[in-house]
Specification:
about 120 residues; mainly alpha; de novo design (two linked rop proteins); elongated
């Protein structure tokens, strides 16, 4: 397996952009969510990009896929927390839809990348 340069992977770049968006909106969450949703959403967004990057250091596609699957899990966790924010009226419908589209695109791209690596 040839190692990937994570900085050149579109899924990593889009995940890094999601981190910026996430930190921007979570800074506006209520103070009582500092150690709840704010912390969890920030950690999830960082986990998505970090696991992609860490996976590129692995010698086999099998090991790389494990990190991509962890990244994908964090992406689904992020989406759930985003839904919680919307249901609790912490974010506008417009922002919710914008971030939902972004996380869904990232989920699909990570899934497709995992599939492209084969068994």
């Amino acid at each position: 397996m040839r190692r990937h340069n994570f900085k050149k992977l579109q899924i990593w770049t889009e995940s890094m952009n999601l981190i910026d968006d996430t930190y921007n909106f979570t800074s506006k969450l209520p103070d009582y969510e500092k150690f709840g949703l704010r912390s969890q959403l920030n950690r999830c967004s960082v986990s998505i990009a970090s696991n992609i990057a860490e996976g590129t250091s692995k010698k086999t596609n099998k090991h790389f896929k494990t990190f991509l699957e962890t990244s994908l899990g964090s992406a689904f966790e992020y989406e759930t927390q985003l839904i919680v924010c919307f249901r609790q009226k912490f974010i506008s419908e417009a922002l919710y839809k914008e971030l939902e589209i972004k996380i869904n695109i990232i989920q699909k791209k990570i899934s497709n990348f995992i599939d492209s690596l084969g068994n």
